TrEMBL record:
<keyword id="KW-0285">Flavoprotein</keyword>
<dbReference type="InterPro" id="IPR023753">
    <property type="entry name" value="FAD/NAD-binding_dom"/>
</dbReference>
<dbReference type="GO" id="GO:0016491">
    <property type="term" value="F:oxidoreductase activity"/>
</dbReference>
<keyword id="KW-0560">Oxidoreductase</keyword>
<feature type="domain" description="FAD/NAD(P)-binding">
    <location>
        <begin position="6"/>
        <end position="284"/>
    </location>
</feature>
<dbReference type="InterPro" id="IPR050097">
    <property type="entry name" value="Ferredoxin-NADP_redctase_2"/>
</dbReference>
<protein>
    <submittedName>
        <fullName>NAD(P)/FAD-dependent oxidoreductase</fullName>
    </submittedName>
</protein>
<dbReference type="Pfam" id="PF07992">
    <property type="entry name" value="Pyr_redox_2"/>
</dbReference>
<dbReference type="InterPro" id="IPR036188">
    <property type="entry name" value="FAD/NAD-bd_sf"/>
</dbReference>
Length: 302
């Protein structure tokens, strides 16, 4: 096997990618994991709903432990980004940002999804300290707090209604709403207070304390949930004809995490909700084992 030839290459160093690397490497094959753990949605999160981890734990700590575990089993790791993927017979070729090209018998896509951002001052600096992109993930941290949701689609309205079970007060900031009549009725009959404006700035030092709105008002809040929807990191996948789901938001896979292209698997957030670590780890486990089996079969055929 040449220096740059691998049995399995995994793109994405989040929970799905790391777990896939662990299971693939245990098959005594050559595995390369590409990506930065800092790019994972988990990195700035807090985990308290994952079995066997009883205390609230920093996502960054879990990712670091997982990466070291994968390396102990033999996984090679590079933080280089992938620019292009090409397919030649049974081999996939990946062009990296470093200019190097690596090849593999099997490929696992675990790039996650890119959260749509407000792109306002304070959003990046206060991420994980009052700024969140997932109500389902972080609602429990805001029990008894005053919180705000922004967004005009069903994810935002549903998130605001969900937060009523946790927070003492919930605001929904949206200039317009594009939701079903049923969901709108539920919102209007709830105690969620809607503010017809948009957010200009998120304020706070160590934690979020307030929002500056486009209408000139200041809104005191202890948390802001940005629920603008998710956009999948699909550019690389679609280069080689990987099919998406019916809504063209996520990669379509079967129960073995196989895509429509033999040798390509996908796992984690990139294949759809719920966007939770538990789901990502399980899918990564399946993808890692299946990809390893596929790669070993292809090597025997040659």
């Amino acid at each position: 096997m040449s220096e740059h030839m691998y049995d399995v290459v995994i793109i994405g160093a989040g929970p799905a990618g790391i777990q896939a690397a662990i299971h693939a490497s245990r098959r005594k094959i050559r595995v390369l994991l590409l990506g930065r753990i800092e790019n994972s949605a988990l990195y700035n999160g807090h985990i308290e709903n994952y079995a066997f981890v009883p205390q609230t734990t920093l996502g960054a700590d879990l990712l670091k432990l997982g990466l070291e575990q994968a390396k102990r089993f033999g996984t090679e790791h590079s933080s280089a980004d992938v620019l292009k993927i090409a397919h030649e017979e049974d081999i996939f070729h990946l062009e990296l940002e470093s200019g190097k090209t690596v090849s593999t018998h099997s490929l696992i896509l675990c790039m996650g999804v890119s959260k749509q951002k407000l792109n306002v001052p304070g959003e990046k600096d206060l991420l994980g300290r009052g700024v969140s992109y997932c109500v389902d993930c972080d609602a429990n941290f805001y029990r008894g707090a005053v919180v705000t949701v922004t967004g005009n689609r069903s994810a935002a309205v549903d998130g605001a209604l969900t937060l009523l079970d946790y927070a003492s007060k919930v605001y929904l900031v949206a200039e317009t709403l594009d939701v079903s009549d049923e969901l709108l009725t539920r919102l209007q009959s709830s105690s969620v207070e809607r503010i017809c404006s948009s957010i200009k700035q998120i304020n706070g030092d160590r934690m979020v304390t307030s929002l500056e709105l486009a209408n000139g008002e200041a809104l005191d809040t202890e948390g802001i949930f940005i629920e603008l929807g998710s956009k999948g990191a699909m550019q690389l996948a679609t280069q080689i004809g990987v099919l998406l789901d019916l809504e063209a938001k996520y990669i379509a896979v079967n129960q073995k995490q196989e895509t429509n292209i033999p040798g390509i698997y996908a796992a984690g957030d990139i294949v759809g909700p719920p966007l939770q670590m538990a789901k990502a780890v399980g899918e990564g486990c399946v993808a890692g084992m299946e990809a390893a089996t596929y790669a070993r079969k292809k090597k025997k055929e040659k």
